[in-house]
Write a structure and sequence with these properties.
This is Nucleoporin Pom152. The structure is a single chain. The protein is mainly beta. The chain folds into 10 domains: 86 residues, no CATH class; 100 residues, Sandwich (Immunoglobulin-like), CATH 2.60.40; 129 residues, Immunoglobulin-like (Sandwich), CATH 2.60.40.2550; 107 residues, Sandwich (Immunoglobulin-like), CATH 2.60.40; 91 residues, Immunoglobulin-like; 78 residues, Sandwich (Immunoglobulin-like); 73 residues; 107 residues, Immunoglobulin-like (Sandwich); and more.
Amino acid sequence: MNGTPRRGPGGFPATPQTSRTPGGGAQSPDTTSTSTPSRPNVGIPLPAVPRPAEDSNRNGPLIPTHILDAPQQRYYAFALYVGLWAWRLYDFYNLAKDEEESLASCLKWCFLDMIFIFCLPLFEIPWLEWSNATAFILFIVHAGLDVMLMFRIGIPVQTWLLGFLAFFFDSELAISERSVKPGPILHNASLILGKQIIHILPEGSAILNPDKQSFCLNSTVTHLEIPILINQTEPVEIELIRIDIDTNQNETIVIKGRDIRSLLKKARKSAKAVVPSSPLLLQHTVKKTGVYLLKRVLDQSKLEVRPRAASVVVASCPQARVKPTAHNRCRNDLSNIALHIEGIAPLRIKYRTTVNGKQREVSEFQSLQPDEFVSPLSKHTSQALVHANRQDVSWARSLKVTVPLNETLLSSGVWAYAVEEVEDGLGNVVNYLSPEDEDRPRQKIAGIFQVFTVHERPNVLLQGCTPQQPLQAAKGDVKRLPLKYGSSGDGPIDGPHSIEYLFTPSASLASEGEQGADAELRKQTMKSTREQPLISASGLYTIKSVSTEFCEGEVLEPASCLLQNPPEPDLSVSSEDIVDKCAGNPIGLRVGLDLIGTPPFTIRYYEQQKGQRKVPRYTQVSTLRSTIDLLPKDPGHYTYTFDSIKDFIYNERPLHNLVLEQDVKPPASAHFLEGTTPKKACIDDTMEFDVKLQGEGPWKLEYELVYNGKRTKYAAEVEQEHYTIKTQKLKNGGEYTVSLASITDKLGCKVSLEEDSEVKVNVRHERPKAYFGHIEGKQAVKALEGKPVQLPLRLTGERPWTLEYEILDSGDVKRTTVNSANDKLDIKVAGTYQLLSVRDAVCPGVIDDKASQFNVAWIPRPKISVAESATMIFEGGRYVKDAVCEGEEDSFDILLSGNPPYEVSYQRRVMGGKNGMSQKEIRAATGSASIRAETSQAGTYEYNFVQLADNKYDHSSKHFSPVTVQQTVNPRPNTKFNNPGKTYSYCSRESDGEEVIPMTFEGIPPFYLEVEIKHQGTPKPELSIHKSIPTHKYDLKIEHRKLHLGHSAISIRKIRDARGCTHKPAPGGPRVQISVHDAPTATPLEDRADFCVGERLSFALSGQNPFTVYYTFEGQERKASNPSSTFRRLAELPGSFTITGLRDSASECLASLSLHKTIHPIPSVRLSGGLVTEVDIHEGGVSDLEFSFTGTPPFEFTYTRSTNAVRGRKSRVLEIRTETSQGMSLRIPVAEEGTYEVVSIKDRWCSFARPVEGVDGMGGKGGQKKLAY
């Protein structure tokens, strides 16, 4: 056994006891210690057990120590271990910076740790030989660390490590493509500025106008008292400075002696203070405007009391008035009111509008000031507006501002504008509506009210009279022009109206019935709406305008009236006797009346029986000719005198020498009052007939009802002269007859009634009908031109028929009377005849729609024409056929009408050509013929048809009009690639700046192009169509949906120009190649669109890195190179960020993108304008903390109150408060002593906080949490 330490399986060896020979062999212990005397069999170790040669070779490290000793091997192993950890931490830093996790990195490091831990013992380096169990435990520990680091599991090591690395590498790329440190952005101390220190005033202080009141003087307030607050002092002298507003000159005012004692006495009396040391408010009287400053206060001990810097501005009180205006307006006018305001700008005014006693809401204008005027009132941050060393007070001068008011006066009535209140920039308020308020100065200024009346606008139209419905009046009579008054309101305006109208006499009217050129313009004033213009002369009256005392009005339609003077009425009569047929005695007189005038007429005549007085009679006549029967009831001698006549227009006119006489002996008789006109009735109706009986009564009346051969007799005893016959229900259709058979009078004389004793009642089954018959089986006929034609009619009903028909070709409507059911209608004009209506002797009828038209045509002369179409138009006296392309087959058809066959002769010539003219003849057996066009050569061809004949007509120059057809033959277009054989690169997604394929065209633009795309590996080419190419030079772009990844060939398939000419190149012609690459993409790693300054915008890029990212920030285009698959930038400034394009290294493809993010600024807050201010207040007094914000409302901020700093002692936080503001500024009153400062601010999007000692949770890290409400 030797002393060389042996390693157990995976165990650590003991400290070596033997040394190694250079050859690697082992020596005995004796060889390394002192030598032992050589004595036989004393202390000699046993010989070693023989071992295999290979076992002796495994006793040392894998790398022999003579090459690299054990300590150096341990050093290199440890260096490799440290290098692996450095690499590991570098990967972790990149993941933490990009806020990502990586499973691949985790697996990579687990694999590397396993290789290192399990392979290191194989090198048999002393002290680095561990067992398998130890290796497994080490691997588990390292794998856990790999998981936590690569998946960024939150452990404190991450924060420590990132903080440590950030100390050396605290910079990163921002949106502006420059390296910036995020620390100054996230910890920007200028975001929270300002501090206000409040002290409780010590003894002995003086302040001018402590409550910051406003003061002003005017004509009613000639003096006022300005307050001076003193505390813990009794002044003996007060010195004030007055700065004149107009001249900027200073005036010193000294208050001492008796004046100061009087002020103190009044102050103590007003305060009623028990404690002598209580603050007193001195009231100093001033009578001049200006800026007053408290310069010096001297107390009883002859020491100066330091006054607080403050000023009082005593200005002229603001005033306002309404500009005077007219007292009467019209509805829908503009108010045209102006407000004149005078005072210290900026001014504010309140005014109220009252309409008909109803007040509207108060209107207000603020911040009124002249243009380019800047007032310090909106900018000062301290109590004193004016300091002793800055005496420019020109801003305190009164300025004049005019505010125009223009609103539409939509309602009538009394409108009033009144100024209620005016306020100047200092806060001086003059209220004109509260005279009882003694605390406010008031003025009695004329002009603060402006009242005017808004009147309705009149309108007028003519009612009941137009040129189509004229107004008729008797000659010399005066008529009212029928005006109807109205207004823009609810009814007419009660008041005078001025009417202007044009008058043209009837003899001077224009041919269209309008006003003549010499029309007379008349003007009349109507005192009320009950009056109307009086007119008497016949002619046309047209209203031109209407107006009232205040307003112009509107003339509505109808606005014209025609006045006519009809002729005066007159009468002439003729008479004949009415004789009894039985006795032969005259029983009455039949008088014929012939009238002149305007129906209806009223005729008055006197009937006088001999020995009796005259009895006036009246008769109404509705026509110009009529007949009346004068049948007296009693016998005797009668005289009829026609006395007067009256028509629709004229009143009674006397008649002269119109007298008729007769001896009358009337027999008994009876007749129907309605006459014997047949009546129409429907089934189941009953009929009534009024019968008048004459002679001596009582009477016996016998009558019959006859139907269908059946006669029913009836008898009635009648005592009165009038009797009504009532029938039963007429239950069957057909003709009924009611007949008066006989009448027997008082003497028993029976008279048979024949004439006028029957009334027929037709109970109709159907209505009459009319339609056209047939001629040779058709309702159409052709005849020689000019020959009369009779059209067959078929009618049903009772004659005569009144027939109305229309010639559809001309639109003429005619009416005729037909007496036969199969009559003929004579016509002489060709056309289509349409039956419109028919009426028989009894009732209107119907037209049979199927046979309501009849077509009449002449046998035509031969005609030649060319059918117009989209390709053949008529212009300039000739037909122009669409141009055709060279070499294309084309023809056109001529239309022939007449009697075939036809013979046509035409001439063909080339305009401007050298071949001259050729003439051809054709014979056509049908109504059309096709003419082949000449297209072999380009040019303009003209075809002139000069002769035409048919089977019945020879050629006639008188009736024939030559026809010319013109056609242009266009040359073919052509195109070519500018660079045939070239290869162009494209992207799979469309982007700007892509390559185009230049081409050149020959022909007339725009062009139509078809190209074939032959993709590699695809047998069938794809077609790409390009339309409306406007120029001869064209950059060809292939649609991306037709591009395939890889290589493709493009060739020209077809081209067409604006003329429609097409050219197809031969196969195998020139072509170009295209190469299509895939386009990169970008995806935001966060879905939100709103970020804050200081945050990082991260996007995942797909494609072949490195990438070129194109983006815009605040309208400025930028380009960035990105080597990794994550694009990350720090938002250093607020603005709008949009990624517009992305290009990778695989190709020149620029992918168009629109990834928009909005970067919001970190909010800021200023306390006391961002300055450190000290405010002194009295015990119990109040001071305001004025906060101003920047950012997006609403705001939430936290501020602290700390103890005022004392030398040698740290300030201590007393309280923390959090407030919310909806606006950009906030004022908070405080009354406690201390130092106030803001520690955090948060707006709608972002937040920021600064560290405060002694306050938990107030770290210095600016957050980006938005404020939500």
